Known about the structure:
Layout lengths: L12 H10 L4 E5 L5 E5 H17 L7 E5 L4 H12 L3 E4 L6 H11 L3 E4 L4 H7 L8 E4 L15 E2 H5 L16 E6 L9 E5 H11 L12 E4 L6 H4 L1 H8 L2 E4 L6 H10 L4 E4 L1 H13 L9 E4 L6 H10 L3 E7 L6 E5 L10 H8 L10 E5 L14 E6 L27 E9 L5 E6 L4 E3 L2 E3 L1 H8 L5 E11 L3 E10 L7 H8 L11 E4 L13 H7 L10
Parallel strand pairs: 1-11, 3-4, 3-5, 4-8, 5-6, 6-7, 10-11, 10-12, 12-13, 13-14, 23-24
Antiparallel strand pairs: 1-2, 8-9, 14-15, 16-17, 17-18, 18-19, 20-21, 22-23
Helix pairs in contact: 1-2, 1-9, 2-3, 4-5, 10-11
Bound molecules: adenosine monophosphate.
Amino acid sequence: xxxxxxxxxxxxxxxxxxxxxxxxxxxxxxxxxxxxxxxxxxxxxxxxxxxxxxxxxxxxxxxxxxxxxxxxxxxxxxxxxxxxxxxxxxxxxxxxxxxxxxxxxxxxxxxxxxxxxxxxxxxxxxxxxxxxxxxxxxxxxxxxxxxxxxxxxxxxxxxxxxxxxxxxxxxxxxxxxxxxxxxxxxxxxxxxxxxxxxxxxxxxxxxxxxxxxxxxxxxxxxxxxxxxxxxxxxxxxxxxxxxxxxxxxxxxxxxxxxxxxxxxxxxxxxxxxxxxxxxxxxxxxxxxxxxxxxxxxxxxxxxxxxxxxxxxxxxxxxxxxxxxxxxxxxxxxxxxxxxxxxxxxxxxxxxxxxxxxxxxxxxxxxxxxxxxxxxxxxxxxxxxxxxxxxxxxxxxxxxxxxxxxxxxxxxxxxxxxxxxxxxxxxxxxxxxxxxxxxxxxxxxxxxxxxxxxxxxxxxxxxxxxxxxxxxxxxxxxxxxxxxxxxxxxxxxxxxxxxxxxxxxxxxxxxxxxxxxxxxxxxxxxxxxxxxxxxxxxxxxxxxxxxxx
Length: 548
Ligand code: AMP
């Protein structure tokens, strides 16, 4: 017997329709790429997104066509986003931090038809336009007054592109499983792979990520997504904030400590989210200038593990609650969040800090487990490491064009429908997951595993250390041993013995790095994470003093 409820297709255009009804005057504030702060509202954004839809249709874009953006978080980017998704086109966020050739490779793989580009990235696109034959139209996200002369064929200013367009473009009316967004993984192994979100998967993910113990956003919140829209939909905030009717503050091109601080204070931000490197910049700006945070209540930190020093600074020095989150592009991206539940009420401050360094629990709709190399389930005892598998309605089952397929039908799942995250983790009896490493970064010493992340998290707290990375280096007896790579704070010269002393007692003796090297800059990848592949390459012939 079938239920007798309405067939309300879960397409994302409804999100902006809703925001326009419940919060037509609620602001979206942007630090524009041109410079000034620009204010718009959900009502206006809706109107302009409809005009963008109309212009896209005129440019020959229809259901399933890929609409690429190379853009910062701005209101204009949101207009193109909803304008494309509303007519069933696929919004493809290109990551400007990749190398130009990689961007061209991805645009070709995606067969993007039109590209919206911020002024900042125009030089990149001018360089690679000849390599992207599928792109027929270039739109520069600016107005006519700021439109530079450009070598891009037929390039048009965005304001000109949508000017005077009608607002009657039809949104929705297609199946909720229609593709809505495309985002390529960073491709640390092999070529990048496209994750193709559907309207339904993004909608369910937004509901899941906004549960009370997850983001829990409300209309009265003011949200600053520092995490870029090209990094897995700004962790769904581009859907959740309009769903909640919350005010949005878009940082544009300026993500340095001072610029973020100004927005946090001047716009009275209550909730923000980004990777740890952004928070390092903000915290050092706060410390150097003896500043306080007067309205910020919660900060979500993910993308890589939260260093203890950042967690303590936010919670102890500035009274801001940290929510540590883990996820990946393939999970839309939210996988777990570290929120305190009823069992944690009795914990002391120090016990809470320790717990908050874990990646946390799954929100409803995400399932996870850990398995050994043969695929057998491992115990949830908080000690046993295993490969972390996940499943749920917002987890990828295949990559675009069936890249990396494991099965004849193109999917990448195991027989029970589990997706292998490539992470190694423990799960404690209370359900809190701890990432111990990427499967390929774990250091295999004498048949036992050493977590590079655990050592890094502690080492960044050592005096004079700005950033720390640990990689496995060849050792004749143990196979691999950890090498600690340190990037000193500007103007400081940390010493080897002091760092070793600092680690002493904080990690198991046999995890102690066999050596420390100092570098000017630890290389970061396109999503702000430490580029271990580059480090492994640099130190591939490194001779540990213990190897003699
Ligand atoms: P991406 O798809 O680029 O977001 O990368 C996803 C990967 O980033 C995950 O598989 C993890 O290896 C890593 N990651 C994300 N969040 C965290 C976190 N909170 N702690 C440790 N690693 C993380």
